[in-house]
Amino acid sequence: MSSSSQFLSGSEIRQKFLDFYAQRGHQILPSASLVPEDPTVLLTIAGMLPFKPIFLGQRSPEFKRATTSQKCIRTNDIENVGRTARHHTFFEMLGNFSFGDYFKEQAIAWGWELSTQVFGLPPERLVVSVFREDEEAYTIWRDKIGVPEARIQRMGEADNFWVSGPTGPCGPCSEIYYDFHPERGDDKIDLEDDTRFIEFYNLVFMQYNRDAEGNLTPLQNKNIDTGMGLERMAQILQQVPNNYETDLIFPIVKTASEIAGIDYASSDEKTKVSLKVIGDHVRSVVHMIADEIRASNIGRGYVLRRLIRRVVRHGRLIGIQGEFTPQVAETAIALSESAYPIVRVREAQIKAELQREESRFLKTLERGEKLLDEIIQRVKQEGKTQIGGRDAFTLYDTYGFPVELTQEVAEEEGLTVDESGFNAAMEEQQTRSQSAHETIDLTLQGSLDKLAEHIHSTEFLGYTQPSSQSQVEVILVEGKSVEAAEAGTQVQIVLNKTPFYAESGGQIGDRGYISGDSVLVRVEDVKKESDFFVHFGRIERGTLRVEDPVTAQIDLSCRRRVQAHHTATHLLQAALRKFVDESITQAGSLVAFDRLRFDFNCPRPVTSEQVQQIEEQINTWIAEA
Ligand code: SER
């Protein structure tokens, strides 16, 4: 093993990490999907997430020790991507886990050995942090590992107590940092200074569960959860100024710059930011689509859409005309197919989804450009020199125009943009979207009632037309809201408008079909839930997606037969009154396309002679139409 750091490719780092722990009794497990089983988060945000039920004692582990390279996405800091050296949406987290097996001392010893012996980081370039109250960790670092006191930093709860979410397994943690500038001296250590330090390895001593009130209960077992940012370790070992210039991401940046006909190295800062955003986001969207997320307006589908749109927008900012995302996606696929073969398996779906979203968004952008032209003309006609904040916000929110783009265009026309008005509108929107954020959890619970706030009630067209051009608003599978569903699935669908009658007053709902671009759904029943018409059916072929334009077509012969049976209940009642008893009224009924049932109360039994008379009378009325 080397004792000084050397250039390692991203793949080599990943493999060395896994091998190191495999040699120490850890089972290498594959990365879980980005779509977590855990309903409290939208996407897999950490390597420990797939093991949460084990930490909580809800599932027993197959192995006491495991190691993984987990695909993760975090979008809480999306605005920082490309602007700092190491913010990402997509990243790979290397982790070693102990489920009630080894604990603090062993985890620290191995973490140190791996960092210094395998990756060859000089000990004098490392600084560690511990949770302020964790004397045990402090002592291990100082006495067993031999880290000088000045290079062990005590940190507060915000930094060194790790929780997987608002509630869940948690514990104090200890982090290992790399020092790019040891010459600045041990007396000036400030781990927040990211021009000097980078945190690359987090060791969590997972021993509590936190409830919604913040109470900590000890877990049955003491566990270890660690996370090493692969991209960060690559930045250190490849000695590049930021994560985007590592071999894990730079080829994507390069492809984008070639399409734009520019050179990364000689580009200005703004262009570099756009290229980095593309480099980061393209990895996210490739893996999200590979994990079967599809662009939509809710939940993780919305995250995907937002990321794709940001890629397209930044592409335009650096001068790319027309569609380019499938081409950059190819580079991202080639980069990760050896570690995550699923991206090549799903290559066609990835490229098709990107192409679809991109062309749709480009049309939106064109409309935005037109609107901006109109706004500029209006502002000028009114003799003003400033574009209103609200207008700028509409351009941003509805047409994906970043305010900088609006400013740029405005400037060319000798105008400015009311930035504070824009910020105010943005703040308002953020308050609104906090409640939309709840949609995320709500959609996972899949309750239509709860979705009600976010979609419009169904427009019913069935009085006047047997078919309509509609859009898919919601797809539910087994009560859960999904972004897409495949052939063979039983689904419940809400459309923005429908010609389908819903079941009501004993009359069954219409039958028919919902069809779209190579997708066909057979509608077997329709029910009304508050203001929504819910179409129950089965996907016969293709994939149905939220937001798909579709044709909703009722089965007219079924509708006619139901109408006939409805009329027949009136005839039956009239005949019963005529031949049996004047006082007979309907007590209940069922009107289906193949039969009807009519319930009534009658003081005496109906004779077979009366039944005969009733039949003849009704047939006569029908014959007379
Ligand atoms: N769960 C911890 C983190 O995400 C360590 O893996 O940082």
Fold and architecture overview:
The chain is α+β, with helices and mostly antiparallel strands and 625 residues long. It folds into 5 domains: 231 residues, 2-Layer Sandwich (BirA Bifunctional Protein, domain 2); 119 residues, no CATH class; 64 residues, no CATH class; 113 residues, Elongation Factor Tu (Ef-tu), domain 3 (Beta Barrel), CATH 2.40.30; 62 residues, Threonyl-tRNA Synthetase, Chain A, domain 2 (2-Layer Sandwich). 40% of the residues lie in helices and 24% in strands. The strands form 6 sheets. Strands 1, 2, 3, 4, 5, 6, 7, 8 and 9 form a 9-stranded mixed beta sheet that branches. A 6-stranded antiparallel beta barrel has the order 13-16-20-19-18-22. Helix 8 packs antiparallel against helix 9. The N and C termini lie far apart (96 Å). The relative contact order is 0.07. About 2% of the residues have low confidence. The site of serine has 10 residues, from strand 8 and strand 9.
Keywords summarizing the entry:
24 strands; BirA Bifunctional Protein, domain 2; nine-stranded mixed β-sheet; binds serine; alpha+beta
